[in-house]
Amino acid sequence: MEWRARSAGTGLDMTLLADATGTGLTDLLSHPFIQHAFLGGTAIAIACGLVGYFLVLRAQVFSADALSHVAFTGALAALAFGFDARLGLFVATIGIGLALGLLGHLGRPDDVVIGSVFTWILGIGVLFLSIFTTENSSGNSTGGTSVLFGSIFGLSSGQASLAAWVGAAVALAIVVIARPLLFATLDQDVAAARGIPVRAFGVVFLGIVGVCAGEATQAVGALLLLALLAAPAGTAQRLTNRPYLAFLLSPAIAVACVWGGIVISYLVANVPPSFAIVALAAGFYFVTLVLTTLRHRPPRAFARYGNG
Amino acid sequence: MLGADAGLTWNLTDDIRQLFEFHFMANAFRAGTIAAIVAGAIGWFVVLRRQSFVGHTLSVVAFPGAAGATLVGVSAAWGYFGFSIVAALLIAAIPRTQGHSFSEETAVVGTVQAFALALGFLFVTLYHGVLDEVDSLLFGSFLGITDSQVTTLLVIGAAGLAVLAVIARPLLFASIDPDVAAARGVPLRLLSVVFLLVLGLAVAEASQIVGVLLVFALLVIPPAIAQTITMRPLLSISIGVSIGVGIAWLGLALAYFYDQPVGFYTTSLALAGYVVARAGAWSGERARRARAST
Q1: CB atoms within 10 A of CB B44
Q2: Complex prediction ipTM
Q3: By the CB < 8 Å criterion, does B153 face chain A?
Q4: What angle (nearest 5°) sits at the alpha carbon of residue B99, between those of residues B96 and B101?
Q5: Which residue has the higher pLDDT, A153 or B240?
Q6: Mutate to test the interface with A, among B117, B210, B214, B274 (most CBs of A within 10 A)
């Protein structure tokens, strides 16, 4: 229900912003919705940066893509049946995350199968979107858009502090399993021989990715969360070859993108915060790609680990 | 909203007469048929060459194209065709890098897709568009297709199919056995660039009917079903095209009579067809194996 209350999200944001633009940076933090955006956004960014680091390293970015599809359908299913969108969101992302982790070892289905199934899941989401829109014929149809593209300025104080707690829990969980997970990622066989439950770590990790995806959907939306997961991590891994440094750099870049995005969207009229965040993240990544490629530095990340 | 006065009866001719009562609906069927034929034929090679995710990326890039075209006040078709063709050229221009790891490639593709979607969202916001427009760009809409749009789809689709007909034989050869084809002097690089361009056209056409996020329903799934049934090229392509047209027609008719979005029906029909085809192939395989072992 809470989501519905703020499901006027995007429209509301714009009126708030219209009042706020032009007042400059000085009283940026005096607006409650900006404070909530900073609180929730920072936690989400840290979680995404840490989780994304392992996603990119394990070449599982497309698993996150899959999760973003089910996040859309899950959230809209909850809305269509009158529940809080976050319920559907987390059930869908965590459930599918664990399922991907468990089924991932049954052999890789080809891209046609994956693409067809996830296209259909989106199709179901569209059905729920239409049910939800029809039920709320009072013109309040922005719920669907805020699921797709996020509404970080629509976070209430309760939602922002919940996001902060969930983000902190995700970050803590990743930090706790970071060492064995890194080992299991870089050299699966040796890690298994040393008694690390490689498979269990894979499943737990995708479960954490599910929590993180559900969380990030609230800030940047189901369609854009891939940028927050993949781009800062990709940038960090281009900038340094040292795993732990990259592991710290990735959330730092993500936080910088979210903060920068909030400020840009506050200062420039009509620029939605999720666009500004994604544009910064993608911009950082592409500039880094070009610069590091120009310097003829081959991406040798972890070469020394791979051999040992 | 339409279903209220246009109820479905069991009188088929009456239903069909109802379906074409409105001019926009006739246009939707024309446009859907053209897009399904073009996407089905070109998609057959997409499935063969395992390039379905390239198709998906091209369609996602078409979203900011369509939204941007609306923003600057030209027909959305310009945006669809322009952006997906430029994106096809860019993908063709990226050298096949050997040194870059697979993990980095997925990060780049994921970031490009998210950025394209974010850009489209920005354009719609700047346009102050009704939010329904986002949904119809992403998930398809059959309302308000004009005569000139149908003509554009027809002309560009015919051009794409003509190019495909010219390159079909060498493309088939190059897709099935690139090494031997190269040794026989087939220009692989040129073929793949031309094919990417044709793919850009097909994706732009399909996006306008089923929406940028659901192009798989016309581009990939019908040919994949056809290839499960038979691998004889001409027969398989014809089956794929027929299935695609069937999905488009049924999807449009269902969306007309029962008020749900066309994207839901087309994806559900397509996936159901795919599941049936795979199950049929699997049980046929089992029966053959059982016969062989006895």
Answers
A1: 28
A2: 0.84
A3: no
A4: 95
A5: B240
A6: B117
